[in-house]
Amino acid sequence: MNQHNALARPSWPSPHPITDGADDPASARPAEDASLVSVRDMLAVLHANRRMLALWVLLCLALAGAYLYSTPPEYLASTQIILEPRRQFAGAQDAGPGSYPPTLDSAQAESQIQVVKSERILRFVFTTLDLAHTPEFSTHGRGVRDWLRDRLSGLISSPSREAAPALAPLSEEARAFQAFSDRVSVRRIGQSYVLEISYRSLERQQAAKLANSITAAYIRDQIELKASAAQRGSEYLQGRITDVQAEQAAAAEAVRLGTVPDMRLPASDARVISAALEPLGKAYPQTMLVLGFAAVAGLLIGLSIAAIRYGLDRTLHSPKDVWRSAGMACLGLIPRRSGGSRRRLQRPLIALDEILIHPDSKVSAALRVSRTAILAANPTSRHHAIGFVAWSHREGTSTIASNFAHLVAAAGDRVTLIDGHLHQPGLSQALAPHAESGLNELLSCDSTKTELQPVPLSEALSFVPAVRSGTTSDQNIYLGSPEMQIILVAMRQERSVIIDLPPLSVSSDAQAIGPHLDGLVLVIEAHRTTSDEVAMAVTALRSTKTRILGIILNKTTAGQPDTRAAGRNRWDRFRRHD
Question: CA-to-CA distance for 553 and 191, rounded, in angstroms?
């Protein structure tokens, strides 16, 4: 036993001495604020939710990929023009002796942007090039983005049901012109007088052609205004009118051909400085931008869900959670058995004599650590009387109590293991299925001198079943009776006593017998037992001045490849697991 004690150390040493049941529970709690979340806690949460985070990122990337696959690529072509107001002639009638060349202010420059986007300019290009029957502007030739935009705009700007019948549906030509207009964009470059006219199309050549046609149409419109002024004014000669008409014809021809005029047009207030060229790559949708946005969105959604789950999760996962919730030491971390089948109905289970079957396993090593910590908490007694209890069923008290009894017996001490589950004697069914008497029969006798013959499990370990095989216990029997106290005193004269007690949520037997023991060990299941349940268990035990030796965190997933929360094991086979 000394060799085992020298190698085994408690997994979570208590920074404060463990107090007995008379102490105030609030005084045993640490000074640190339980609401503070350390970086290690957040990293643990991210590690536990890494599959969910990866799933969200992959889902968003898949949606982005579907969008990119279903949306046809669009190409953007741009032209640049500079606004140059025509200088006044020195001999003009309205030119004074101190007149200066006219200039453009910001308001005039911005107004020219609206002129380029006006229906008059775009309608001329639309009609000249006969774009009404172009497949690009039909419903079946548009992308997902255009379809969604049409649906959303229809929902936002839809009239009331009473006014809806009075509105005539848009014609195909009107829809085509609207689609054409939506693809035109005009912007001013900085504070300069340069305007950039852009057009996006599903085809490279079409994008460049229409961008040039719109630019030429704007030049034509400027020339047409000057031609009208020339015809009305008396300051221009007939020759000047002929030149302007020639320039107007050249601009109209440029609109039809999808180019810009290659001749100087002095009658226009704008001059082309850069014609639209065929784009080399698509402009929309932007693949890297969409994929990057999808990855960031998936990561943010996953982090939000992980944070919400962490905030709403009241279960205990680590010794730090146990210390924050109950203010007492975690005596050991019993891992879930690794390996074996991963299916739900065939989960790997821990044996009641795991310490004997697999002495070199991680589970056995953790059980030895727990044994050392429990015995160190009660060093004065030669023969120990220790109970194991949980808040609810299937948290592993029977497994831990049985293995603890085997460990104490293997160290040379004589031990009696008692099944205190009088109404659900699963441990008795596993270790003594043919018992002829049990604790129920002993407590039912009027004479306390009736001797009980324990079932021998090994040379130093014996077992007391809860009931005789094939019978049920008396509902009026409880473990806090005087007869049970006499039995405990008699047994402790020559051996240690380990009692597997029923859960606190269904029975008060642990509260009744707890004051007559050296202490109780509270067993909780990681990822299942909540902090509220632990608080209720501690309060219930301390209400009867029961000494709580500490807490064992059972079925942990630390170091295991499967980080999912421990589920509720509905297949209770007590020969292998409690």
Answer: 69
In degrees, to the nearest 5, what angle opens at C-alpha 552 toward C-alphas 549 and 558? 150
Q: Which residue, chain included where needed, has tokens 């953007």?
A: 76
Tokens of 5: 């004690």
pLDDT score of 142: 54
Do residues 493 and 462 lie in contact, with contact meaning Cβ atoms separated by under 8 Å?
no
Instruction: Provide the 8-state DSSP code for 459.
Output: S
- Separation of alpha carbons 570 and 414, rounded Å: 34
Per DSSP, what are the bridge partners of residue 500?
Answer: 388, 419
- For residue 25, give the nearest of 566, 570, 569, 534 by alpha carbon: 534
Alpha-helical (H) ranges within 317-475 are: 319-326, 354-357, 362-376, 397-410, 426-431, 439-444
8-state DSSP, 462: E
Distance CA 197, CA 81 (A): 8
Query: Which pLDDT score is estimated for 151?
Result: 62
* Sign of the alpha-carbon torsion through 201, 205, 207, 213: negative
Q: pLDDT tens digits, residue range 489-500?
A: 888 888 899 999
Q: In angstroms, what CA-CA distances link 55 with 44, 427, 531?
A: 18, 42, 29
Phi-psi region of 477 (alpha: psi -120 to 50; beta: other; left: phi over 0): beta
Q: State how beta strands 75-83 and 270-274 pair.
A: antiparallel
Task: Note the pLDDT tens digit of each residue in 2-14.
Answer: 434 433 333 333 4
Sequence-distant (6+) residues with CB within 8 A of 399 are 350, 351, 352, 354, 554, 577, 578
Cα–Cα distance measured from residue 443 to residue 477, given in angstroms and rounded to the nearest whole number: 7
Q: Which long-range contacts (CB under 8 A, 24 or more apart) does 440-448 make?
A: 440/466, 440/467, 440/468, 440/471, 440/473, 440/474, 440/477, 441/467, 441/468, 442/483, 442/487, 443/474, 443/477, 443/481, 443/483, 443/484, 443/487, 444/474, 444/477, 448/483, 448/486, 448/487
Amino acid identity of residue 86, one-letter, is R
CA distance 377 to 331: 9
The DSSP annotation for 513-542 comes to HGGGSSEEEEEEETTTSBHHHHHHHHHHHH
Burial of 157 (0-12, 13-18, 19+ CB in 10 A): exposed
Task: List phi, psi (to 5°) of 496.
Answer: -85, 150
CB-count burial class (<10 Å; 0-12, 13-18, 19+) for 72: middle
Residues paired with 522 in a beta bridge: 389, 551
Q: What is the pLDDT of residues 231-265, one digit of tens each?
A: 665 555 566 667 777 777 877 777 777 777 666 66
Nearest to 462 by CA among 421, 419, 415: 415
Q: Are 495 and 524 in contact (CB under 8 A)?
A: no
Each residue's pLDDT tens digit, 355-390: 888 888 888 999 999 998 888 887 766 788 999 999
Cis peptide before 433 (omega within 30 of 0): no
Residue range 437-479, pLDDT digits in tens? 888 888 876 545 556 778 899 889 999 998 887 777 777 787 8
Q: What is the DSSP letter of 137?
A: G
Asked if residues 474 and 468 have their Cβ atoms less than 8 Å apart, the reply is no
